[in-house]
Amino acid sequence: MKKKKIFKVLYMCISAIFIASAIITTVMILSFDMQYACPKFGNHILVSVNDSELSPKILKGSALVSDLKYDKVENGDYVIITTKSMAGIQYSVRHLESVEDEYYLVSGTEGRGPFYVNKSSVMAVSKMQIYGLGGYINMMRTRNGFLLLVIIPLVIVIIIQVIRMLLLIQEKKLKEQYANVTADETVNREEM
Fold it and tell me: Residues 46, 65: contact at Cβ < 8 Å?
């Protein structure tokens, strides 16, 4: 009996994790905005961090909830800026060092010091960091990620449910057989 309860609790925990993973992945996919190339919820976007240039404040693999309709930017904020590269438009997260009339002074990378960015290049201002979600977003963008995070968990939950139903049917048949055997035995005893 204890074993059955343990398996039931374990099954419920695994099912909850799998279903939550499938729901989060589906929401991320459905909210993906082609203009920003990331999930968008109202005036906020989720930008995944793919490098560790800003460690330890902003960690690689985290997601930044960033406000597209920001009112003002202050020193110390993390801003999302658009940069052009050979691959097209990319987003960079930079620490804002100072605000000037037409430009922002932002922190540079390891090999490059602080540099000025036009105010129009700042796309959003980071409001919050969610650890681990950036890696999850990057993974769910791929075909293998969708398979791993949505399809496989749902198939596993369905298979477990089918096995549970088969076990319940088998248990019911065994109880019926036992009831029939005991009924036959009591009838035979009464006849004797």
Answer: yes
Give the helix ranges, DSSP H, for the chain.
Answer: 2-30, 133-140, 143-146, 152-191
Q: How many residues are present in the chain?
A: 192
| Residue 34 Rama label (left phi>0; alpha psi -120 to 50; beta) | alpha
- What residue type is 167 in one-letter code? L
Q: Determine the straight-line distance between the first and last CA of the chain, rounded to whole angstroms.
A: 38
Of 119, 150, 129, the C-alpha closest to 47 is 129
Distance set, CA 33 to CA 4, 30, 46, 113, 140 (Å): 45, 9, 10, 32, 14
Say if pTM beats, i.e. exceeds, 0.90: no
Residue 63: Cβ-neighbour burial (10 angstroms; 0-12, 13-18, 19+):
buried
**Cβ atoms of residues 110 and 94 within 8 Å:** no
Residue partners of 38: CB distance under 8 A and separation at least 6? 32, 45, 46, 47, 48, 91, 137
Name beta bridge partners: 46: 65
* Residue 106: half-sphere exposure toward Cβ, Cα within 13 Å: 23
Task: Tell me the pLDDT of the chain averaged across its residues.
Answer: 82
Closest CA to 78 of 90, 94, 64, 92: 94
Structure confidence by residue, pLDDT tens digits, 36-56: 778 888 888 888 887 777 767
